[in-house]
Design brief:
single chain; alpha+beta; Cytochrome p450; three-stranded antiparallel β-sheet; about 10% strand; globular; binds protoporphyrin IX containing FE; Cyt_P450_sf; heme binding; lipid biosynthesis
Length: about 500
């Protein structure tokens, strides 16, 4: 019975797809529907977008349209032409529709009268400018709690751990405490810090398990068991982020309080507020930890880079950075070598899609004068990871880590990169660009810098296997920000007997 129904459904789908078969109209980008009706290239796209889109680029050039699960997606891979997309008005190329779809699918969030522009303007105010200093100070304090007050990390004996687990958990726990608040007023009191250590570990453990299911959730590909597990974890996290729990916290960031007031004004009930706060937990904590992991991994793999960063940290921070002091912004801004290492790390591992829904039939003019037509109802997608970030025309040996790639000979920041003999405006785009660039970028950079500073100042660390290869990527994460390694990399670390600087 079920089999017959399935066959009937399949036949209907095939007939439907054949009947409504789309063909390429004049001036439209090359069209590649794939062999399977309706489904098109969905599986290859989702499994490894970098591999699939590279193949399509070889076949069709830097703009083409592919079919994936009933949707037609036009992919643009010419970085000189990205301006025509990233600044286009939301009335033509809409960012919100697809974002809302993912919000609901991944986090069960539906907000009434949701206006992302208002929300974004409010959040910017609390993640940048004057608020940045408060966040930096709180992050420094929370990193100290997590790194220097955890008994397990205190002993001067060598310990073994996975670097990804280590980096992600420290960054996420400290980042969470910074934005969502501490468990107790006197958070410099070691006894009371225990509460923050325990609570942030509980949140991280659940968050990490959910993070491992999110890519399948986004593609609606969870098995029944995985669905149950995702629901269980979400419920636990909603409770941890409930009004009652948050009201009991101290040192909540102005970002959190303003966001909660904003949800109140929208008339969002308590349950939906917790769901929205879990979505924000992922938006704010899902990338910085993996970025810190890759940066530390590349430093450990490249002793010349590690020596250059250590020398810079020593010269900038000598005599500063005691446990209870925040690091001044002017010091955080005086590290061109570290900045180059971070840019190079993100070039290699930052892989967001920039996605827009096409709301009306419209022309798309590329930088070299070519003009294409975009069709209403299609989706437009940029994948800067392929170009400019991994483009051999822009970067020599693009797959290699070169710590000084973003440094000029005089040690200043290098910003001139070329493609086709023309200087690129967008040469590295891990933070997105235009209307939906990351608004937490400055806080993220300060946080990663402080983490590495405290870590290298207070701990010795090394790869367990010095010949460790770069771990392969979990390719299902392409398009969602930072990639994660398929498997972890073991390190040895121990607390230094005395701090050198
Ligand atoms: C290395 C770390 C990070 C990277 C690579 C990164 C990257 C990105 C990217 C690519 C986007 C655009 C997403 C899209 O358009 O779909 C984004 C958005 C966003 N990021 Fe980050 N991010 C990082 C860390 C952070 C941190 C630490 C925060 C906050 C504390 C943050 C807050 C946000 C927010 C709120 C948005 C949504 C902005 C909007 O409404 O358009 N990010 N981030």
């Amino acid at each position: 019975m079920l089999f017959t129904a399935l066959v009937a459904l399949l036949v209907t789908l095939v007939l439907w797809a054949l009947y409504f078969r789309r063909s390429r109209l004049p001036n439209e980008p090359p069209l590649d529907r794939g062999a399977v009706p309706w489904l098109g290239h969905a599986l290859a796209f989702g499994k490894d977008a970098a591999k699939f889109l590279s193949k399509m680029k070889e076949k069709h050039g830097d703009i083409f349209t592919v079919q994936a699960a009933g949707k037609f997606v036009t992919v643009l891979l010419d970085p000189h032409s990205y301006d025509a997309v990233v600044w286009e008005s939301n009335n033509k190329l809409d960012f919100n529709k697809y974002a809302c779809l993912l919000m609901e699918r991944m986090f069960d969030v539906r907000l009434p009268d949701y206006d992302p522009a208002t929300e974004k303007a409010m959040m910017k105010l609390h993640l940048q400018n004057k608020s940045l200093h408060m966040l930096t100070k709180a992050m420094f304090s929370n990193l100290n709690t997590i790194l220097l007050h955890d008994r397990e990390k205190l002993s001067p004996e060598w310990k073994e751990e996975g670097l990804f687990a280590f980096g992600y958990s420290v960054m996420m726990r400290a980042g969470y405490l910074t934005l969502y608040g501490n468990e107790s007023v006197h958070y410099n009191n070691p006894l009371l810090q225990t509460k923050d250590l325990e609570h942030s570990a509980e949140v991280y453990n659940e968050f990490y398990q959910l993070d491992q299911l999110l890519m399948k959730l986004a593609r609606s590909m969870l098995s029944t068991e995985e669905k149950k597990e995702a629901t269980r974890i979400k419920k636990h996290l909603w409770e941890l982020l409930s009004r009652r729990r948050l009201n009991a916290k101290v040192n909540r960031s102005s970002w959190l309080d303003s966001y909660r007031s904003h949800l109140e004004e929208l008339g969002v009930d308590d349950v939906m507020q917790s769901k929205a706060l879990l979505l924000q937990l992922w938006a704010t904590q899902g990338n910085a930890g993996p970025a810190a992991f890759w940066l530390l991994f590349f430093l450990l793999k490249h002793p010349d880079a590690m020596a250059a960063v250590q020398a810079e940290l020593e010269s900038v921070y000598k005599g500063k950075g005691q446990e209870t002091e925040a690091i001044k912004q002017e010091d955080l801004d005086s590290t061109p070598t570290f900045d180059s290492v971070l840019s190079e790390t993100l070039r290699l591992t930052g892989t967001p899609f920039i996605t827009r829904e096409v709301l009306e039939d419209m022309p798309l003019k590329l930088a070299d004068g070519r003009e294409y037509r975009l069709r209403k109802g299609d989706r437009l997608c940029l994948f800067p990871y392929l170009s400019p970030q991994m483009d051999s025309e822009v970067y020599k040996d693009p797959e290699k880590f070169k710590y000084d790639r973003f440094l000029n000979a005089d040690g200043t920041k290098k910003e001139d990169f070329y493609k086709g003999g023309k200087k690129l405006k967008y040469y590295n785009m891990p933070w997105g660009a235009g209307n939906n660039v990351c608004i937490g970028k400055l806080h993220a950079i300060n946080s990663i810098k402080q983490f590495v500073f405290i870590l290298l100042t207070n701990f010795d660390l090394e790869l367990k296997d010095p010949d460790e290869k770069i771990p392969s990527f979990d390719t299902s994460r392409y398009g969602f920000g930072m990639v994660q390694p398929r498997s972890d990399v073991k390190i040895h670390y121990k607390r230094k007997k005395s701090v050198r600087w």
